[in-house]
């Protein structure tokens, strides 16, 4: 995790020196790869430290970090620009023209290095190594069956054998992977095409579109925290009921913003869709930790990540764009988004009943 963040910082610095298009593309690809290095370790750490009935809220706090991180980039860049301009003794106009790469690339990289060093110091693998009560003992006290606890013991298997036996052959892992695939199809479909649709079809100006898009992103933070709390306290560790409820509402919100011509209603529908689409995405992350033993969480995250980003994101961006161009109507995109909602609800339902049967 810490290594990935340090490598991200290094790539960010190199981006500031890049003048070649191909070098820029290569650095962006590398940035994506290095950013992904933190996902698996994060899930494994959460699975090792927090019992099942408390993972929802703690994973929710972890999950909103990317929303917060994305939201604080602009203030960090702006404030560091003023500070660096004063330090260099130049005007802001001169700084923005000559030294702009310093606050856009180097400052975020410096923050990343500091946080990575803190993570290296503070994040521990599991409680047992720190002389604390092991999570399996806590789970046993919380009522998890003995046979399930025994299955958590790490077997003497290779990484591929763990992936094959505990992930590829696990129908619950596939339910979660396909569920998240359709969530990402909806999410990326909205993120990619919402601005263009609002500008071209609804006649929004860029400021109005910006407000709708801003609400789409920031509304995710309170909804994610609430979903984590509800799944822990009300649904007793079952993650799919809130996810299903969110996708049902998203279904009607998508219809609303495609059919409404009222500015405020469209902004409301967009904000609600953004508020809710991160709920099933986040709960799929939590469910991933609970459909496989702790030692197989990283492999299961890999499958879900591949399905989500490669299949789901591609369907939400390229496939919807192709359908709109081919049929010459945004209705084609609407049908694809609504179909993804229905398929996500189906996969979530299968996952819920399978999890319920497992813990009976």
UniProtKB/TrEMBL annotation:
Residue stretches spanning the membrane: 26-50, 71-93, 105-123, 173-199, 211-230, 242-258, 264-284, 291-312, 332-355
UniProt key word Membrane: yes
Places the protein is found: Endomembrane system
Keywords: Membrane, Transmembrane, Transmembrane helix
Major site of localization recorded for this protein: membrane
Domain Major facilitator superfamily (MFS) profile: 1-356
The protein's name in its UniProt record: MFS transporter
Source taxonomy: Bacteria, Pseudomonadati, Campylobacterota, Epsilonproteobacteria, Campylobacterales
